[in-house]
Amino acid sequence: GESVGLHLPTLSVQEGDNSIINCAYSNSASDYFIWYKQESGKGPQFIIDIRSNMDKRQGQRVTVLLNKTVKHLSLQIAATQPGDSAVYFCAENYSGNTPLVFGKGTRLSVIA
Amino acid sequence: GAGVSQSPSNKVTEKGKDVELRCDPISGHTALYWYRQSLGQGLEFLIYFQGNSAPDKSGLPSDRFSAERTGGSVSTLTIQRTQQEDSAVYLCASSLGRNNQPQHFGDGTRLSIL
Known about the structure:
The complex is a heterodimer.
Chain A: E1 10-14, E2 19-24, E3 32-38, E4 45-51, E5 56-58, E6 62-67, E7 72-77, E8 86-93, E9 101-102, E10 106-111
Chain B: E1 5-7, E2 10-13, E3 19-24, E4 31-37, E5 43-50, E6 65-69, E7 75-79, E8 88-95, E9 104-105, E10 109-113
Parallel strand pairs in B: 2-10
Antiparallel strand pairs in B: 1-3, 3-7, 4-5, 4-8, 6-7, 8-9, 8-10
């Protein structure tokens, strides 16, 4: 989703449910994508990455899906926990060794 | 620690003063990046160092901003004659400098200009 200033899109989920966070990226030439988690007062923390020659990659409780046709990226979190509450950013670049372009971020709020 | 280290964690200064922000990257990381994050916003690229190559300064918002990286390791970001719109969190990241390697971030310096 889009965000303006402080009004980040917010996703609220019940503890134990699965979460899906979506991101539309901008550059069709981008070939490397990363999801970051940012907690209040902290820097972005790497979660998972994916190259453009893949359409799915799984980590521990997380899955990233890439749809290059529509330039869409999603992060799925299984069995969401209160510790997952944070702002999640997608980021893209070309060849992985250039400055990242970040999405606006989505705030995930886990309801215990 | 093994992560990216930034100092100070917080800096409050008066408008018009100069400030220096420091970043210690992860040992062995050849690429170093500075980003800026304004309240509730995403991250905005400022400058990028890769090995001994000339830095990519294309994200610096004005000539009041500059950065150095000495010995291929520690970097300092300097803002001269600070203005209130410079208030933000300044984040540093480093990576191995090879394709498809993630950037790892420090916790940033929160800069407040009075």
